[in-house]
């Protein structure tokens, strides 16, 4: 079925986890032909059940794609899926666009833009914000470092997955702005857990606290999203502790290169590292409350 008001386009998606899987679903719902790859067989099966073409390698997913969306964990995985033994690079056609939706260091985004340009392939350094809910609802924010032509060519894919596309400069600029955003996300997430732990110890009714703070000067978007879930014990993984650790390390490394002393960010990283060392790295960032109260008792 062709999308309303336009032709059916070909998209590849590599990384079908919480974010990539939901974005692939939005592209399918928009009527596009979507091929996808993930190392997780269950993720591939869910994608196939939604109508996507499950592929056995990144190269297969990239074959014939006008836009290739990468939603993998980090820069090492980007390297692997693009230029590994079964990487996508050799199957991408000149004139195609790689939408790098992963959060990577700015230097990595710039380097990939140069490598791809040598093959006539454009890069959109376009990390996204909005979490699992935003991805499922097509309400993500894309923070894009790219040329105007690349954004125009990939516009159909961006529109299917986002509510706002911010063009912040050339490749590298998107990663820079996302890095700063993630510094704030990590700090607000840890501080929300700390506040909710203090409330619990002080005997404050958690949902009432959520309502009060959400209408007061201490309010933040992260508090509004995380605190209600902490209050009712909803710890489904929307963003993992390990993901926040990875993103915050990018910010700390870049801050050091630029001569900024990120005192608060270092403190937040110590909280995240402590949770990971306790075996909770793969869990939701809402479980950071356990860093203050101790582990929850199952059941």
UniProtKB/TrEMBL annotation:
Residues 172-289 form the 3-hydroxyisobutyrate dehydrogenase-like NAD-binding domain. GO terms for molecular function: NAD binding; NADP binding; oxidoreductase activity. Keywords: NAD, Oxidoreductase. It comes from the Bacteria. Coiled coil: none annotated. Pfam families: NAD_binding_11, NAD_binding_2. GO terms for biological process: organic acid catabolic process. The active site is at 178. Residues 10-169 form the 6-phosphogluconate dehydrogenase NADP-binding domain. Belongs to the HIBADH-related family. PANTHER family: 3-HYDROXYISOBUTYRATE DEHYDROGENASE-LIKE 1, MITOCHONDRIAL-RELATED. This is Phosphogluconate dehydrogenase, NAD binding domain protein. The lineage of its organism: Bacteria, Pseudomonadati, Pseudomonadota, Betaproteobacteria, Burkholderiales.
């Amino acid at each position: 079925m062709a999308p309303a008001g336009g032709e059916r386009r070909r998209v590849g998606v590599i990384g079908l986890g919480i974010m990539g899987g939901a974005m692939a679903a939005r592209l399918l719902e928009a009527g596009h032909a979507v091929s996808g790859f993930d190392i997780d067989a269950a993720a591939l099966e869910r994608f196939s059940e939604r109508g996507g073409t499950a592929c056995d390698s990144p190269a297969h997913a990239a074959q014939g794609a006008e836009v290739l969306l990468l939603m993998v964990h980090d820069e090492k995985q980007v390297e692997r899926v693009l230029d590994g033994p079964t990487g996508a690079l050799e199957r991408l056609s000149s004139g195609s666009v790689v939408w790098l939706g992963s959060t990577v260091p700015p230097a990595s985004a710039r380097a990939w833009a140069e490598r791809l340009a040598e093959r006539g392939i454009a890069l959109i350094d376009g990390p996204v914000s909005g979490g699992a809910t935003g991805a499922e609802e097509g309400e993500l924010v894309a923070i894009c470092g790219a040329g105007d032509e690349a954004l125009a060519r990939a516009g159909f894919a961006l529109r299917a997955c986002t509510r706002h596309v911010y063009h912040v400069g050339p490749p590298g600029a998107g990663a820079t702005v996302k890095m700063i955003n993630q510094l704030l996300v990590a700090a607000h997430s840890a501080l929300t857990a700390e506040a909710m732990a203090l409330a619990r110890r002080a005997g404050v009714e958690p949902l009432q606290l959520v309502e009060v703070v959400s209408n007061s000067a201490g309010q933040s978007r992260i508090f509004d999203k995380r605190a209600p879930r902490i209050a009712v014990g909803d710890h489904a993984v929307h963003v993992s502790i390990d993901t926040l650790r990875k993103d915050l390390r990018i910010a700390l490394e870049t801050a050091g290169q630029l001569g900024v002393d990120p005192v608060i960010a270092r403190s937040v990283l110590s909280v995240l590292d402590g949770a990971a060392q306790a075996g909770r790295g793969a869990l939701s960032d809402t479980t950071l409350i356990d860093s203050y109260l101790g582990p929850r008792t199952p059941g």
